[in-house]
Amino acid sequence: MNAPEGEVKFVPKQALAPSPQLYDELVSDSMENLAKASLAFITPIAADSVINDNGCGTGAASAAVVASLSDQISGVSIKGTDINDAALKVYRQRAADGGWPAEAVNMDSNSLKYDDATFTHAIGNAMLFVLPNDGIDAIKEIHRTLKPGGKVILNSWAYVPNMPPLEAAAKATRPEGTPLPRAGLDKWSKTDFLQSVIEQGGFSKDQITILQGNVQVTTGELHRYANMLWSFIGGTTPVGWLRSDEENWDEAVEVIKRELKKTDGYTELPGGKSQLQFIANIAVATK
What gap in Å lies between CA 27 and CA 211, rounded to an integer? Predict the structure, then answer.
């Protein structure tokens, strides 16, 4: 799950309190669709596979894995690892309800407690760009715990349609020079950067393939979605929330709504929902 960049000392009264449930509502089907798009670039998972869903959150990637298995589910084992207990609680409930061959364990991606050569597959879905050191330490652990010939799927966003609207809202409602939300993430849009961090994590250059794929995401009702976006991401700057954000809250949300409608691939759906088009960098690396 994502975390703010700066220490938040003030929070506007309108901001929705972050929680795994709010996160799932905000990301909607984006994380599962990202995982599905990523899994499409590897051969079907065999019945005897042991999979690490690294940084599993509430289980989007595991759900995509299970959906891809069809009648092979009984022979597969999934280990979901994350450090967020609230997210793991949701994961465990989803696994129980869905009959997943999975367990969820509180474990740091940078220090996995599994033996060397444990997994046939690993997936880090929307994980690297929220980790320290660009996720290189986590990739080293993935490399260590993969069996020889094992594969890891890693991804990053090449295009995120909701970031320009958030930046527009920040520029419209905050003093000039105020840091923008999620500043510094542009590097992840470049395939060369993703290639570099995977190589630094121990994978050979000739064993890494990176492609791009479109990911369609369905949002909830637009005003609610814009409000969640600003609540969850608006304060993620080195200076956190500003006192003026409270009085300018409605303006910021309206800017986000207006700018979302201008993004490439935006489609209005029945019931006030909409569809956004993301583009993902998808890497498959073999040990």
Answer: 22
Helix H or strand E segment including 247: helix 244-247
- pLDDT tens sequence across 232-244: 999 999 999 999 9
Contact 108, 138 (CB under 8 A): no
Q: For residue 52, which of 61, 44, 43, 40 has the smallest C-alpha distance?
A: 61
pTM of the model: 0.91
Show the 3-state SS of 139-183. HHHHHHHEEEEEEEEEEEEEECCCHHHHHHHHHHHCCCCCCCCCC
If you ran DSSP here, which 8-state letter would residue 99 be given? Answer: T
* DSSP annotation of 8: -
Q: Where does residue 23 rank: exposed (0-12), middle (13-18), buried (19+ CB within 10 A)?
A: buried
Residues paired with residue 212 on neighbouring β-strands, in sequence order:
281
